[in-house]
Amino acid sequence: MKEVRLGIVGVGGMGSNHAGSVLAGKIRRAKLAAVCDIDPKRMEKYDAGVKRFADSAALLRSGEVDAVLVATPHYAHTTVGIDALKNGVHVLLEKPISVHKADCERVIAAHTANPKLVFAAMFNQRTDPHYQKVRALVQGGELGRMTRVNWIITNWFRTQAYYDSGGWRATWQGEGGGVLLNQCPHNLDLLQWICGMPVRMRAFCHLGKWHRIEVEDEVTAYFEYADGATGVFITSTGEAPGTNRLEICGERGKVIVENGQIRFVRNTTSMIEFSRTAHGGFATPETWNVEIPVQGGGGQHVEILQNFVDAILDGTPLIAPAAEGIRSVELANAMQLSALTGETVPLPLDGAAFEARLQGLIRASTFKKAAAADGPLADLSNTFNTNK
Hints:
The protein is of the alpha/beta class. The protein has helices spanning 13-23, 56-60, 75-86, 101-112, 129-139, 160-164, 179-182, 185-195, 271-277, 300-314, 325-341, 351-364, and strands at residues 4-9, 30-36, 51-53, 67-70, 90-93, 119-121, 146-153, 200-207, 216-224, 230-236, 244-250, 253-258, 261-267, 287-290, 345-346.
C-alpha cells in the first residue's frame, strides 16, 4: 500500500475540518475516499471522487477505504469503532474514545482481537511542545517526587447558542456529560500522560449552572496519588475571561505552563531533604530560574492524522494510541460519579457500575432541548484551546 484511502464517518464540525485537511493536501499519502453522515446535505460539497454513504456499516463493508476517522456524536465512537475493527479497517477515533469506561473496554477488546490494525485517538494536544517539555521534566525526574498538581482550565467558554446548535449536545443520552466529556478529554488525557493516574477522587460537578443543559458545565475536583501527591482540577464553560494554568510541584521545584510559556523554578537541593536538615526555622532552599525553550506550536490535528497514516504505511509509533484514551474517560467518569453520590471514588473505577448509573440518568431524564435538529456547521479552527 502506497496511499491510505481514508473514510470519515460524521462530517459535521470536526469531521468536515479533518476532511478539509486531507483534501488540501496537508496529509501526505492520504486520499479522502469516502464520507458518511446521516444528514445528506453535509456531504453535498464533496465531489464525485469521494464516495458518499448514509450508513457507516455500508461504508465499512464497501471495500472503498483502508481506514476511517470517526467524528460522530460520542456514543457512536464505540459502535462504529468496533464495527470498523471487526471488518479489518484501521481506526482513528475523535475524543473521547467512548462515553464511559465500560464502552472503552469494549472497543479496546475489539482491537485486541485485531492487533495488526492501527487504532489511534485524536488527542492532538499531545503534539503541543509545551506539554511535551513538561512531561519530559516530570517523567525524567527533574522535579523529583511530585507533591502537587493544579490545573485551572476555564477558558473553554461556550455560549447557549453553542449548546443549542445540536440536539445531541449536553444531554445524558446524546453526549453522556458536558465539559468533562466534550472539552476536557484533552486536558484529562494530558494530566494522566504527564502525572499518571490518581488512586481516589472527590469532585463537585454543577449541572446546568451557566447554561440551559442537563449536564455539568462547572467542575472542581480533588484527587490523591498513591505516593501522597495531591491534585486539584477546575474547569468550566461558563467563565470569561477564563484561565489555562497548569502548575506541577515537586521536591526539586515547580513548573508552570501559562500564556504560551513554561516557567521552571528549580530548587538547588531537595526541599524535603532541606526541611529535615536546615537549622533555621524560616530558611528556604536556594532556587534557579531555568529557561525552558519551546519551538513551534505543534501540528495538532494534522500531526495526529499524519501520524495515523504513517503508522499504517510505515509502522511509525503512535503519538496517541487509542487504548490510552480509557484513562481520560475514567477520570471524567470518576468525577461525575463522585458528584452524583457525594462520596470519594476509588480508582480504578468500576466501569459496569458507572454504566448502570448513567443509563439510569438517561431513563430518568425529562430535559428537552430547544434545538430540534443540528444547527449550521461552525468554524472550529480557533476552538482548540492550545497553549498560546
